[in-house]
Design goal:
The protein has about 210 residues and is of the alpha+beta class. The chain contains 9 helices and 5 strands, in the order αααββααβαβαβαα. Strand 1 and strand 2 form a beta hairpin. The longest helix has 27 residues, at about 25-50.
């Protein structure tokens, strides 16, 4: 069921159409959830792009719609010094802008994932045992700052992926810079809503098997 909803959401983002040959009430409700969700995420993307226009223009931040949700990507050097997990003072006003959006009416019910990523260069001059620890601590540092500034901790979780989810080649300095990043992901809330609905509809589950 969860995979079915996610696939439908991805198809909507990509512009593909979904056709149900014999629409049922549950099918129509799913479509309505998807349409509402997509519109909310589009509005939020516009808000982020407007609020962070300077940072986006300076290539410090990127906003993108991806399979996992609406993703705000920070180049690691914008937030942290090399090998460190303490936020730079100059990064705080940028994160404060993000807090405003995360607590806006279109986003307040969404869960927020904070992901840390690194390049593939081994840790040398740092207290961290590996890139996993560094990436995880950076994500946690961002989470704690967002909490301090008023984002509900019940909405948030963090994860560290180290070097294992690159977005560019680690063979070049430019690629490594792109891989060193922190992503704040605004997750679709429709999956949770629809899953809860279907907990009370066991017959519907049988029909889908």
């Amino acid at each position: 069921m969860r995979n079915l909803i996610l696939i439908s959401f991805i198809l909507f983002i990509s512009g593909c159409s979904i056709v149900f040959q014999t629409p049922r009430r549950s099918d129509i409700e799913r479509i309505q959830y998807l349409e509402k969700e997509l519109e909310e995420l589009r509005r939020t993307r516009s808000l982020l792009e407007d609020k962070l226009s300077q940072e986006i223009g300076d290539k410090k931040v990127r906003v993108s719609m991806e399979e996992k949700g609406l993703v705000l990507t920070f180049v690691a050097e914008v937030l942290f010094d090399s090998g460190k997990a303490d936020l730079k003072n100059e990064s705080l006003p940028i994160l404060d802008k993000v807090v405003e959006i995360l607590n806006s009416k279109d986003v307040i019910e969404h869960e927020i994932g904070i992901e840390g990523h690194t390049d593939n260069q081994p840790i040398k001059y740092s207290r961290w045992k590996s890139n996993w620890e560094l990436s995880s601590q950076r994500a946690l540092t961002v989470l704690h700052y967002l909490e301090k500034k008023g984002v509900d901790p019940k909405r948030m979780f963090h994860s560290g992926y180290g070097e294992y989810r690159p977005v560019a080649s680690n063979a070049t300095s430019k690629g490594r810079q792109l891989n060193r990043r922190v992503e704040i992901v605004i997750l679709p809330k429709l999956v949770k809503k629809i899953d809860k609905k279907y907990l009370n509809e066991p017959k519907q589950e049988e029909e889908l098997k």
